[in-house]
Amino acid sequence: MNKRFKQADWYEPLIFELSHEGRVGFTVQDVEPEISDSIKEAAELIPQELYRNTAPNLPEVSEIEVLRHYIHLSQMNYGVNSGIIYPLGSCTMKYNPIINEVIASNPSITELHPEQQQSSIQGILEILYKFEQAYLEITGMDRATLQPAAGAHGEWTGIMLIRAYHKERGELLERNEIIIPDSAHGTNPASAAMAGFKTVEIPSGPDGCINLEALKAVVGPKTAGLMLTNPNTLGIFENQIAEISKIIHESGGLMYYDGANLNAIMGKCRPGDMGFDVVHVNLHKTFSTPHGGGGPGSGPVGCKEFLAKYLPVPIIEKINGEYILNYDKPYSIGKIHGYNGNINVILKAWSYILTMGGLGLKESSELAVLNANYIANKLKEVKGLSLPYSPEKPRKHESVISAEVMSKETGIRALNIAKNLLDQGIHAPTIYFPLIVPEALMIEPTESEPVEKLDKFIDAVKIISELAYSNPQEALKAPQNTVVGKLDEAKAAHPKTICLSWKKLCSLNNEL
Amino acid sequence: MNKPHQYLPNSVTEVKEKMMDSIGIKSIEELYSDIPDNLRFKKELLIPGPLNELEVKETVLSNLLKNSNLRCAPFLGGGVWPHYVPSVVDEVVRRAEFLTSYTPYQPEISQGILQCIFEYQSLICELVGMSVANASLYDWSTAIGEAALLANRLNHRNTVLVPSLISPKRLKVLKTYAEPAGIKVEMIEYDQETGQIEIEDLKNKVNQNTAAIYIENPSYLGFVEEQVEKISEIAHDNKSLFIVGVDPISLGILKAPGEYGADIVVGEGQPLGNHMNFGGPLLGIFACNHDNALIRQMPGRIIGITETIEDKRRAFVMTLQTREQHIRREKATSNICSNEALCCVASSVYLSLLGPKGMKELGELITSRAHYAMRKLNELPSIKTPMFKSYHFKEFTVNFNCSIDEVNKNLLSAHIQGGLPLKPYFPEFGDSALFCVTEMHTKKDIDILVSTLKEVLN
After folding, report:
1. What is the spatial distance between Cα B419 and Cα B437, in angstroms, rounded to a whole number?
2. Structural domain contains residue A115
3. Measured between alpha carbons, how far is A458 from A217 in angstroms, rounded to an integer?
4. A180 and A319 in one domain?
């Protein structure tokens, strides 16, 4: 155990604590003398009531200190390109290719304003148009909007299309329920609620898939639609999807596809062919764009032709060889983003698609599934772990392992396994999700990981299992090799100690 | 594919076969055997590629170069503005440890991004004069939408009053967000001469249904709303929330909304170190007072300070998560999950570099140049700028006596992107455009704009 991982730790102060009066990190140009001679000073131009007399309390730090501070902080963080494996289930943490970053940082896109004249933005419109075509091919849909800035934003946009559809048919008052399986991401019910719907949760069957009887029991004239990921969050393909679509459609509802798990099936099957009417896809998952510590993402929404008239404006169209932004859509739900979505992210995804091609995307999915099954197959044999819900069925992009037995026998829970993985320099899987698996470890290795890293991950889990059964007290200490050890999360949220800003920290310190 | 792909380490035949052996399959197809045959996609995806790196670069960049080359930054604003991004900002956001990390669900190994976002929240609080900021929303427009929903949840009232001169795009987004919750958006009249909000009209429209009064400062048309104290008073007398939308780059010289009674501040963080990128990603600012009822209704992620259990070391963690979708599901305060975290990092670096002095000087530089531009433009006989007699920060309306689209077309032939035509949204203003001048436009750039316009108008 001498060759231990140890995360870099600079004991980095807050940027405010580096402040020294008078220092600057950036020199602002002087106003040209010809201008200052002819124009009054700002203090005189600005009405007194609106003039800022007290400067904001920002830190005063020189350039090198700012740079080092943030580089130090970056070194105290873990990324897929800088770590060794990031098997965060449902998040598809695949390699984020450097060429995509190089392309997306070209000034011909970074310095482009969204309101420039159409003739001056033909290049980017052409890319967005072509991207939409590729997106439609992969998902089996007819039209799309690239505006949604994230997956959840896409979900809400998609449900808003369903809302507009029922509204136009005069059925919205009655059709106010969206059905969602209990294994769904939290964003699904939250998005449906934000679009004004009630949510109806249905339990998964013993095989981990939608229980058709439970579904039929809740479907009816109130059903506006069903939200589903396929493969689902257990990594299992809902093979009764055609039947499910039929039940929903016959009731007058529509089918919504959450594309969080699309990485399993590119080129193998398509949501549009499974009976889905609306989809969103997370470009920051399946299409390799970096997640930036929480965002920006991008969640384009595709739909079948009959819903296309409700898509948010503008729509990108090609007319007589020219690309245009069409705002003239009377049935549109309106706008859902100030401009055209997270273009910089879409550009990276486009670069990725070109790098893979149709065959490459398909092979990515196949290898992502191979990697996931390789891990599931080995981990289910590890002492204290199991693969609940149809262990005989192949998994797709991810598997959900339960540590319930280990937890009961040793007191070492999924959380502790996660923290022990961190101590070995491996990012933890998603834990305690989906909610239907006790002590869940949701593992999605993606196609990016070489088999050696999968083995390293499997070995790491085995070591933890051995430790759990031989010396659980030691296993409870993790993490110890990360910047900080266990945190007092209750303190962070307690009304007396809650501290969400530097300002508050100063006042709390003064009270002491 | 025949050759191993550089992104697919296990595409090497020998590796793949060994892995298949280990799980007892002969073909990867077996892993898809549970998908009904009639649902399988049996064709090949009609997608260009695979291209190698050189080809990808050449293909995409040659597309992008079809965008016109301008001789200086566009004279466009309205919600995205040309501002300078210091090199240090770009250097930091390229760091793989930030760029390629996920949401910090494992705080012990993610202290870097957590501290960074905590600093972002803190810096924004100082700039806008509030005590709590969240870890970002998608953009200014969706932040207004979320603010309206929050007001409705808090006081159960269902009308939001907004100025008639609100950004038309932001208005459209607000309406989309508001509609499912049954929130109505009502417009407040403006003074024809100054553009300022018509206080009498506001008083007439405010009532027990008013969830919130929203204003933008600077306004969409670039002038500053001066009656902020009065509007704040009207809102609070009526127990409505006072929501202020800001362009944060103005706050080195303009009073912080926290100083004039804002309950919620929203805005667009793009000017603070983020490139325009054809309008995205943007950075939705959302800040409020440290009021428990308000904080617990806040949308989005929030980072807080805590300490380690063992050695009481200061540490950072996502907090108040019981508001969020992954815990509260349909009862969450918002559905937002992925946000604009990396843009927060950029803005933290930006504000740390600029500091109080830089923000003040930058504000002064911008407004001086904008006023210089207005003065020079006004010297042209057929132009009037600005339309409203109020102080303008960096954007201003310019009225022409000929077609603005023709003017812009001619400017573009000289590689200049003129202002944003207002006709589609405000036909009453005739052939007018919203121009924007920032630190990116030197005196020379402005002079060339004016001299080119002179030629164009002749």
Report:
1. 10
2. yes
3. 42
4. yes
What domain range includes position A41? 15-85
Which of A134, A394, A495 comes nearest B31 by C-beta?
A: A394
Category of A471 on φ-ψ map: left (φ > 0), alpha (ψ -120 to 50) or beta: beta
Q: Do A306 and A171 belong to one domain?
A: yes
Total count of domains within chain A: 2
State which H helix or E strand residue B15 sits in. helix B13-23
Cite the DSSP H helix spans in B273-340: 292-296, 325-328
Name the residue in chain B with its Cα closest to that of A80.
Answer: B100
Q: Is B215 an 8 Å CB contact of chain A?
A: no
Q: Which residues in chain A have Cβ-Cβ distances shorter than 8 Å to B338?
A: 149-152, 282, 284, 291, 294-297, 299
Same domain, A184 and A326: yes
Hey, what's the torsion of the CAs at B107, B109, B114, B119, to 10 degrees? 140
Concatenate the DSSP letters of all residues of B185-240 into one string. EEEEPB-TTT--B-HHHHHHH--TTEEEEEEEES-TTSBPP--HHHHHHHHHHTT-
Tokens 């009674």, residue located: B261
Please give the angle made by the CA atoms of A230, A234 and A236, to the nearest 5 degrees.
50
Per-residue DSSP letters for A71-105? HHHHHTS--TTTSS---BTTT------HHHHHHHT
Q: Tens digits of per-residue pLDDT, A356-410?
A: 999 999 999 999 999 999 999 999 999 999 999 999 999 999 999 999 999 999 9
Residue A170 lies in a domain: yes
Q: Is B204 on the interface with A (CB under 8 A)?
A: no
- Distance to chain A for B220, nearest Cα, Å: 13
pLDDT higher than threshold 90 for residue A1: no
pLDDT one-digit tens code per residue, A149-171: 999 999 999 999 999 999 999 99
Question: Chain B contacts of A196, Cβ < 8 Å?
Answer: 179-182
Which CATH superfamily does the domain covering B355-457 fall into?
A: Aspartate Aminotransferase, domain 1 (3.90.1150.10)
Q: Are B105 and A78 in contact (CB under 8 A)?
A: no
Q: Specify whether A76 is located in the same domain as A121.
A: no
CATH number among 2.115.10.20, 3.40.640.10, 3.40.350.10, 1.10.3370.10, domain B87-350: 3.40.640.10
Q: DSSP state, B388? A: S
Domain boundary pick from A58, A85, A112: A85
Note whether A108 and A63 are same-domain residues. no
